[in-house]
Amino acid sequence: SVDCSFSRGVCDWKQDVNDDFDWNPADRDRGDGYYMAVPAFVGHKKDLGRLKLLLTDLKPKSIYCLIFSYRLAGERVGKLRVFLANNKHAPVWEQNKGKDERWRTGKIEIFQGAETTSSVTFESERGKGKTGEIGVDNVVLISGLCPKD
């Protein structure tokens, strides 16, 4: 497994320069490191912020599971989407609000064909709300199908 979390991960993260705003580090409640977040008041409604995870050394014709923690806190905070590099138009995962402020776990299976996926993009879309945030943390890539819990 590859640890791509932000505090101690070994992965290559890049801010998209063609979007409307950047993701920023935010301190964790317990004080052990940080996560990446977009506060609700950043930008205008429908503005987008993209954070891209560059993937290297993925084997062709194999399966990987991307596991991550996410949080959508606040009223009408917006949407969080995940895109794979080979399909920029349709998200492979999308969430538009949380039932509460808790962190949840997202899982995405990445099936490699002859061409391997070169990146995963976390996209935050600004909502109408002025409070709260969209956050992502603990991003891990493991070989094989996602565990069923």
UniProtKB/TrEMBL annotation:
Query: Which SMART domains does this one have?
Result: MAM
What protein is this chain from?
Answer: EGFL6 protein
Top-level taxonomic group: Eukaryota
Q: Which GO terms describe its cellular component?
A: membrane
**Which SUPFAM superfamilies does UniProt cross-reference here?**
Concanavalin A-like lectins/glucanases (SSF49899)
Supply the source organism's classification.
Answer: Eukaryota, Metazoa, Chordata, Craniata, Vertebrata
Domain called MAM: residue spans: 2-148
Which PANTHER family does the annotation name? APICAL ENDOSOMAL GLYCOPROTEIN PRECURSOR, MAM DOMAIN-CONTAINING PROTEIN
What is the gene name? Egfl6_1
